[in-house]
Amino acid sequence: MLDPSIDSLMKKLDSKYTLVTVAARRAREMQIHRDQQIERPKSHKFVGKALEEIDAGLLSFETDNQE
Predict the structure, then answer these.
(1) Could you count the other beta carbons within 10 Å of the beta carbon of residue 21?
(2) Which keywords are on file for this protein (predicted)?
């Protein structure tokens, strides 16, 4: 079983595409800056840590409404 679960993560963001995009961007940022917002992450990998941050409500996503 994955932790955090996909069901829990989908309550935070509107689509799986957004979830993947936000997690990947944050993972890259963590690699460069060596920072994390979770004090004791369960995951050792950057993407896992990013998903934990999303699940904790520490990351969000705003859409650009270009019309």
Answers:
(1) 13
(2) DNA-directed RNA polymerase, Nucleotidyltransferase, Transcription, Transferase
